[in-house]
Amino acid sequence: MNRRDVLGLGAAAVTATLLAPGLRLIELARARAPEEAATGRRRWGLLIDASKCGDCDACVTACRDENGWDGHGRPATDAQWIRKVTLTDRQTGHVQALPLMCQHCADPPCVDVCPTGASFKRADGIVLVDKHICIGCRYCMMACPYQARSFVHEDVTNQKHHAPRGKGTVESCTLCVHRVDAGGIPACVEACGKNGNKAMVFGDLKDGQSEIARRLARASSLQIRPDLNLNTGVRYQNI
Amino acid sequence: MTHIHYRQIEGRSLGYYALLALLGALVAAGLAAAWYMEHNGHWVTGMSNQIVWGTPHVFAVFLIVAASGALNAASVAAVFGRAPYKPLARLSGLLAIALLAGGLAVLVLDLGRPDRLIVAMTHYNFKSIFAWNIFLYTGFIALVVVYLWMMLERRLNAYSRPVGVFAFAWRLVLTTGTGSIFGFLVARQAYDAAVLAPLFIAMSLSFGGAIFILVLLAACRGTGRPLGDELLRRLKNLQGVFVLAVLYFVAVHHLTNLYLAERQGVERFLLLDGGVYTRTFWIGQVLIGSVLPLLIFFTARAGARALIAFGCVLVLLGGLAQMYVFLIGGQAWPMPLFPGKEVSSGFGDGAIAAYSPSLPEVLLGAGGIGIALALVALALKALPFLPESLADTDDDPHHKTGAA
C-alpha cells in the first residue's frame, strides 16, 4: 500500500464518519415520533420479486425470531405470520416460490367483519389486531382471502415486548410496525437482503421517490386475488 | 277454541326429574368441555388455522337457525291469523328463546376469549354482520319476551298480535343476518352467495318446525294432554313443505356454483369426491334429512305419531349433517389464491384441510341442546305455556282418548 492509497482510504474514512450521522439523521427524521399519529400521507407496502425468491426461508426465520411466534411442533395449530408458498403451473410445470403474509389491504375484509373493531387498519395502511379487544371469534380468519391470520391455540411463552401475543386471540404479520415506526424496515425484508435473494423491497407506496414506488412504476406487478379489488399493500412481480 | 285454558305442567313425576337430571348432565358436560378447551387452548380440539370454526359452530348455528323457526307456530297464528295455531303460540315463543339461548351459549363458550363477552357488548364495528347479529339476537330475545308477556297477561292480549307480526319480521331479518355471516365471505367459494340468506330462512323454518313438533308431542304425551289429529296433520304437512323449501334453495345454490367454471372444483369436492363430506351430503342431508322425511310427512296418517316424530328426528339429523357439510366442508376446500397453479406450503395452501371433531367440541355442542331443552322444561313448570287441551274440538272425547 503506497502513500496515495493510505491517503485515499483515510479520506474515505473521514467522509464516511462525517456523513454517517447525517444519513442516520435522515432516517431518524423520517421516523415517526412516538406521540405522533400514523399518517395517511404514507402507505407502507412491500414489493416481492418472485423471480428472485429461491428456496431459502430467511424471511420466515427472521419473522419468527423477531416476533417470537415459534410454535409447539404442531403445524395445524401453530401460528405462521409468513410462509413460503410453492406454485406449480398446471399447464407448463413451471415452479416458483414466494413468501405470503398479510397483504395489508386498503379494504381489508378482516377489518370489515370484525365485530368489535379489534381488526383495524392504521392510517398508513398497516393492518393490525388490537389484542385487548379481540374476543377470539375467528371471523377475520374466515374472511381473509390469504389465510394470513393465525389463532393462538395454546399458551405463549417468551413473548417479545414489541409483539405481544395472547392465547385465544388472532394475530398476523404486523409489517414489523415496531421497526417501521422507529424508521426501520421489516425483519423479513432485512433478512432477504442480507441472507436471501434480495427479492423484497419495503417502502412508502405514496412517495414517488421511494425505491418501491419507482420499481412499481417501472415494471408491471400484480396483487394476489386482484378480482376482489382489495388494493393490497403487498405487490408481486414476475409470478 | 275460543277460550284456551293454559296450565303449568305438574313437574313432580319421576320422568320429569329424570329428564331434568339428563339435561343437567348434558349442560354440565358442555360447561366442563368449554372449561377444558379454554384452559388448554383450542389445540386440544379438532379445529386449526384452516378449519377455524368446528363442531361447536355446527351446533351453535343449527340452534340459532332453529330458534327463529321455532317461532313458526306463533307467526302462523299472529301474522296469517290461523286460529288452530293460536294455542301453540306461547310454546312456540318459549322454544324460540330457549333455542337461541342454547346456541348463543355454545358460540360464546367457544370464543378464544369468552371472558371478554363484555367487550363484544361495548365495542362495535357496524360494518360487521357479526356485530349486527349481536343486536338481532338480543333484540329477538327481548321482543319474544315482550310477545310472551302480551300473551300471558290477559289485559295485554289485544297487543299480542302486532307484537307477533313485528317478531315475525324481526326473525326474517335475523335469519338473513345469520345466513349473511357466510354469504358475505367473499374469499371462500363454498360461501359468498346471496342465496344463503333465503336458504338459512328455509332451514330455520324446517329445523325449528321439527323441534317444535317433537317438543309438542313429548309435552302432550308426558302430561297426558290431548293433541288433535287435525292439528298434527297441519303441522306435519307444513313441515313437509319446509323440507322441500330447504332442498330447493340447496339445489339453487349448488346449480349456480356448478355453472361457474371457477367453482366447479369446490362443487366436485362437496358433491362427488369429498369423502366424508360427500357422504354426509348425500346420505345425511339429502337421503336421511330430506327424502325420507318427505315420504313420511306426505304419506303418514296424522295418527301415526311415532312415525311423524321419527320424521322430525330425521329432519334434525339431516340438518346437523347439512351444517357439518356446509361449515366444515366449506372451510376444508382451499381458497383459490393462484388460479391455474398447484399451490403448496407448510400452512395448508392448496390442500384439503383435515378435520375430525373432538369429544370436547361435541360435548359443548350437545351442552347447548341441553341448555335449550332444560330452559323449556323449567319454564313449562313455572308458567302456563301449554294449553290444557289441544284436541281438535274440546268436547270430542274421541280425540281425547286417542291422544292420551
Automatic annotation (TrEMBL), chain B:
Entries under InterPro entries matching the protein: Electron_transfer_protein, NrfD-like
Pfam families: NrfD
Entry's transmembrane regions: 14-37, 57-81, 88-109, 129-151, 163-187, 193-220, 241-261, 281-300, 307-329, 362-380
Membrane topology listed for this record: Multi-pass membrane protein
Major localization class: membrane
GO cellular component terms attached to this protein's record: plasma membrane
Cell compartment(s), UniProt: Cell membrane
Keywords: Cell membrane, Membrane, Transmembrane, Transmembrane helix
Family designation: Belongs to the NrfD family.
The protein's name: Molybdopterin oxidoreductase
Source species: Candidatus Muproteobacteria bacterium RIFCSPHIGHO2_01_FULL_65_16
